[in-house]
Design brief:
Chain lengths: ~450, ~220
């Protein structure tokens, strides 16, 4: 790679950090406004009690826990995908990894808020921690919620490190490109990086260790989230398939979120020369695999319940399949499987537009999936006398919308302060594909097509 | 001798009059939430009388079943509580420690009987109803779970009285509010560790069964059909 290319990479990828367009302020203000509205709703809920939410006897978990599982699921995008791509040494990963790792950290932060938002007494959330109490009271280690606490805090620590480590050389680059306060902050973040051979070696081994360590952590996190449900004797919750089903669903929704984020970045920050159709093409193939896996798990779960024919489970089963939740259920099947299958399965359709459409649908479908796992079962437990029906209330809807805004907000801010594509990694490896003119692009596509 | 408190409910005797529901509400300071909130599923009933209808009109038979906390020996609500707010006492009661409860509502989800209730708001009693609050029972604040305690305040009172008089607790001496109010004595409460007690006798009746027995929760309430 010659000096010219390296300078071009620097210029292109530092541009969003060093130059600010007026649109940035508009977006930050709009998103910030939505977040403030969400915080206001939460304050309102805290001062009035959960009476303002839609949860009721017997549906004590609904939107908030749906959001919790959904966002923890989204967080599997990043670290897991990025770690696996690093471990198998897929060179096309280079422009993708940081976008993915950032999703993980922010989605985890947002997801971890929901167990607190949904508490009856959120100001006592610290009871979940094994803090040194003068009365020697410990949390109950048998409770899956305590497992959640440990799993999520481990994952958040790990994924933050995993995001931070490969950013160090870029922090150093920015330290050298900025002045004043920004230089001091980037200087601190770069931990005295000089780019010596020794430092490169240490960084490489640290990243290797983290990539290996983060995979089992990520798998265990969503398994433990699934345990919140499968440990209870509730119809259609008490299932052994939930662990892998949740992990597969998490990776599925995570890749979808990553593709949407990449498409937005590509357009807004003009990264067309770095995020190529081939990235969407490859991630689309992964997404297709996960879509098939998701459909398989859903089919297996539903078939065993139906075949087992236990009365309590069948009540929930038919209510989701043909009853009042059927519109949601079949929307989910269409969003997660029926529409993405051709879009991702047929090479001609697996374009940027195709994968983005499929991914957006999958994000919606996976949110519905979490909702459909939680609510119908609680609404129709064993005693028919105590059945109920849940309707969300404005507070719950507002807080849900605000978290999506919060995700976008944090993402926008991050890409403002840190290059969203790893500069040094692009320079180290061969650039995944030579930049093609539209003419050459067309020819390349043609070659793909005629290949026997 | 240690106690193991249990209950037998004779469904044949139950008329569905709901005197138990009213008595429980008065004894245990169970808040009322008003018709609007009740319609939105915020009502709290430590004991409820479930009605099931059999047959087609006009040959309809109504079955009543008072459902309260079954004080399970293998209670699904206990292990899931992250703060030990829901835990097992030495006498086999399924206790709820309001001060430890942070309101995850996980216990209510795990409970197959749906007998655990969440306090959606701080309770209010219109004057002069606030004067009839039972001083032996704590009033629960917003955000915690509450449920039937088998009238633990009455159990403690009975044990203390017996101890002061230097004797064992007599069978039938301790009665929870629901059992006391039942006009047909369908609800019988007592010590399951005492083989001579009426509740022990009824619990071994061939008419007896447990609610959702196959879930393995080992309830301490026996329903007689």
């Amino acid at each position: 790679m010659n000096l010219e290319t390296k300078n071009k990479i620097n210029d292109d990828l530092l541009r969003p950090v060093l130059h600010t367009s007026p649109w940035f302020y508009v977006i930050v203000l709009v998103l910030g406004g939505i977040i403030v509205a969400g915080l206001g709703s939460w304050m309102y809920q805290m001062s009035h009690g959960l009476v303002v939410a839609g949860i009721k006897w017997p549906v004590y978990w609904a939107f908030y826990i749906t959001n919790f599982v959904f966002w923890i699921g989204i967080s599997h995008a990043g670290t897991l995908i990025s770690a696996i791509l690093r471990l198998v040494n897929a060179t096309w990963r280079r422009p993708v990894t940081r976008c993915a790792e950032v999703i993980t950290v922010f989605a985890l932060m947002i997801g971890a808020l929901f167990p607190i938002i949904h508490l009856g007494r959120p100001w006592l959330a610290f009871y979940l921690m094994p803090y040194p109490s003068e009365r020697g009271i410990w949390p109950n280690f048998r409770s899956p919620l305590v497992w959640d606490f440990f799993a999520i805090s481990t994952y958040l620590t790990g994924s933050t490190l995993f995001l931070f480590l490969p950013t160090i050389p870029d922090f150093a680059l920015m330290r050298d490109r900025t002045t004043g306060l920004r230089q001091r902050i980037y200087g601190m973040l770069s931990l005295g990086w000089q780019g010596t051979t020794k430092q490169w070696h240490r960084l490489e081994s640290a990243m290797q260790i983290m990539a290996i360590a983060i995979v089992p952590v990520a798998v265990s996190v969503h398994t433990i989230v699934s345990f919140d449900f499968s440990m209870s004797p509730v119809p259609m919750w008490h299932s052994t398939v939930f662990g892998p089903y949740f992990v597969a669903g998490a990776i599925f929704s995570g890749i979808a979120a990553l593709i949407v984020a990449m498409a937005v970045l590509r357009k807004v920050l003009h990264l067309e020369e770095y995020l190529h159709p081939v990235h969407f093409h490859n991630l689309g193939k992964l997404l297709l695999t996960m879509s098939l896996l998701w459909a398989y798990f859903t089919f297996v779960e539903r078939l065993t319940v139906w075949y087992g024919n236990a009365p309590a489970e069948m009540a929930v089963f038919w209510e989701t399949q043909t009853g009042s939740y059927a519109p949601l259920f079949w929307t989910m099947v269409f969003c997660n499987f029926v529409i993405p299958l051709p879009l991702l399965g047929i090479r001609r359709l697996r374009t940027i537009t195709g994968t983005v459409v499929a991914s957006s649908l999958i994000v919606v479908g996976m949110w519905l999936e979490r909702f459909l796992i939680i609510v119908p079962s609680l609404a129709m437990k064993n005693l028919p006398y105590s059945w109920g029906f849940y309707r969300p209330q404005p507070v719950e809807i507002m807080i849900t919308i605000a978290t999506f805004a919060a995700m976008a907000f944090l993402y926008v801010l991050f890409s403002k302060f840190v290059p969203i594509i790893s500069i040094w990694e692009l320079k180290v490896g061969a650039h995944p594909r030579r930049v093609l003119t539209p003419q050459e692009e067309e020819e390349a596509q043609e070659l793909w097509r005629v290949r026997p | 001798m240690s106690h193991r408190w249990g209950m037998a409910v004779d469904l044949d005797r139950c008329t569905g009059c709901e005197a138990c529901v009213t008595a429980c509400r008065a004894e245990n300071n169970v808040p009322t939430v008003g018709p609007e909130q009740a319609a939105r599923g915020r009502a709290i009933n430590w004991i409820r009388v479930e009605r099931y209808y059999e047959g087609e009109f006009p040959d309809v038979r109504v079955k009543f079943r008072p459902v309260l906390c079954q004080q399970c020996d293998a209670a699904p609500c206990e292990p899931v509580c992250p703060t030990y707010a829901s835990h097992h006492t030495e006498e086999g009661l399924n206790a709820q420690v309001y001060n430890r409860c942070i309101g995850t509502r996980y216990c209510a989800n795990a409970c197959p009987y749906n007998v655990r209730f969440f306090d959606f708001a701080n309770p209010v009693w219109d004057k002069p109803l606030h004067l009839q609050l039972n001083p032996d029972v704590s009033v629960r604040e917003v955000g915690v779970m509450e449920k039937c305690t088998f009238c633990v305040q009455r159990i403690n009172e009975g044990k203390t009285r017996a101890k002061a008089e230097g004797r064992e607790v007599r069978d039938g001496e301790i009665k929870p509010a629901c059992a006391q109010a039942c006009p047909t004595t369908a609800i019988v409460f007592g010590d399951l560790n005492d083989p001579e007690s009426e509740v022990s006798r009824l619990s071994h009746s061939p008419r007896g069964s447990k609610l959702l027995e196959d879930l393995g929760t080992k309830p301490k309430i026996t329903y007689l059909r």
